[in-house]
Design a protein that fits this description.
The complex is a heterodimer of chains A (296) and B (99). Helices cover 32% and strands 24% of the residues of chain A. With 296 residues, chain A is of the alpha+beta class. Chain A starts with 5 loop residues before the first helix and ends with a helix. Chain B has 99 residues and is mainly α. The longest helix of chain B is centred in the last third of the chain and has 32 residues. Classes of the chains: A alpha+beta (296), B mainly alpha (99).
């Protein structure tokens, strides 16, 4: 457990007045509030720190205790105990700073705060929204092209989500209220899921379009004909024009990736032909190719 | 009878400890659309998230309604730009893979 300098956290002097504390807290809260910094874990962490600092420094009793024990906070409990023993009834610390049985939002404040003021010290404080949680979900490209449901386990809870077709690599979706529980009855945070779409060995996705390279034998490329190509939805038969060059790109309209949240709309599929030359020529083929070469 | 996908403004105000006049004020500013049925004010369930955010910004941070509108506008622009960055970096990755 590390000592936290609450004055430093709020960027104020040790002898700051109550007004100055309030002003400093408001200034930082406006800068670091989770609603103004969505998806920023660092800002959320700092926001919790300033809340904690404000809780202590804006309460004269807590501030007094904090100022009194400061860096020696670890000995504070012993000191309080000794005082209690001396006076018989003591300070009733169990009610003011100890206890902590009624508080259910552990984890929002530092262990330093818990150790010094105990859980119940926060009972009368303002409600705070729970922390946002972040998770990553890997999807194969073929799975990203159909709307489907998937069950995730987050913090021991099963969540069934619908993943819309056409979701993009790196895209984030928010599940409201599935984050950490709030403090003092505040609302739960949100769960942010970042999708990672795994590359496909055959198809490359560029926005809503798909790109693929298809081998084409020399004879079909030269004389024209038909070839069957794979798409992510199955096989498609295509006409090949005579004298198709290697590297020729053709577009199959509407055979690309589904467009996110636009039902029935798809990008295009771009097919690049790679002409393959025959190998292991027979004697007859060699003779014929030689004849052809002499016709040039 | 409560229409489906609508929230009664009075219930919402009790839950959030705010006055109904605040909802009317938001409506006057064009920040929320309400529906009156049998003299009861309702707003769509889809607006709940946005409305709770407005309340947090207004009551926790003392930001006035004009400020909240500006913030929402700028946050939307940030979101759009982030989506554009994701899309562009995916395209760039695809081109780099060609090398």
């Amino acid at each position: 457990m590390e000592f936290i300098d609450y004055y430093k956290v709020l960027e104020i002097d040790k002898n700051a007045s109550a007004d100055q504390i309030k002003k400093a807290y408001r200034k930082l809260a406006r800068k670091l509030h989770p609603d103004l910094n969505p998806n920023d874990k660092e800002a959320q962490k700092k926001f919790q720190q300033i809340n904690e600092a404000n809780e202590v420094l804006s309460d004269p009793e807590k501030r007094k205790k904090y100022d009194q024990y400061g860096k020696d906070w670890q000995h504070a409990e012993h000191f309080e105990q000794a005082k209690q023993n001396q006076s018989g009834q003591g300070f009733n610390t169990g009610q003011n700073f100890g206890g902590g049985q009624n508080f259910s939002g552990e984890g929002d404040f530092s262990s330093f705060f818990e150790s010094m003021f105990g859980g119940s010290a926060r009972q009368s404080q303002a409600k705070f929204r729970g922390q946002d949680l972040h998770a990553e979900l890997q999807l194969a490209l073929v799975n990203a092209m159909v709307t489907h449901q998937q069950t995730l386990t987050v913090n021991g809870k099963n969540i069934r989500i619908t993943i819309p077709a056409g979701i993009e690599n790196g895209q984030v979706i928010k599940l409201k209220g599935y984050g950490a529980p709030g403090a003092n009855g505040g609302p739960a945070g949100d769960l942010y899921i970042t999708f990672q779409i795994v590359d496909h060995p055959q198809f490359k996705r560029m926005g809503n379009d798909l790109h693929t390279t298809v081998p084409l034998d020399l004879y079909t490329a030269l004389l024209g004909g038909e070839t069957t190509i794979d798409t992510l939805n199955g096989k498609v038969k295509m006409k090949v024009s005579a004298e198709t060059q290697s590297g020729t790109k053709v577009r199959l309209k509407g055979k690309g990736f589904p467009i996110y949240k636009q039902e029935g709309k798809f990008g295009d599929l771009y097919v690049t032909y790679q002409v393959t030359l025959p190998t292991n020529l027979t004697e007859k083929q060699r003779v014929l190719f030689t004849e052809l070469s002499q016709l040039k | 009878m409560q229409p489906a996908d609508m929230i009664p403004a009075t219930e919402f105000c009790v839950h959030h400890k705010i006055e109904l006049s605040f909802i009317h004020l938001l409506e006057q500013h064009g920040m929320i659309e309400t529906v009156v049925i049998d003299e009861c004010v309702f707003f769509p369930l889809s607006e709940l998230d946005r409305l709770e955010k407005i309340i947090r910004l207004h009551f926790e941070l003392d930001i006035n309604l004009e400020g909240i509108e500006t913030i929402n506008h700028l946050l939307q622009r940030i979101t759009n730009m982030q989506e554009q960055i994701v899309s562009l970096s995916n395209r760039l990755k695809a081109w780099e893979g060609d090398d």
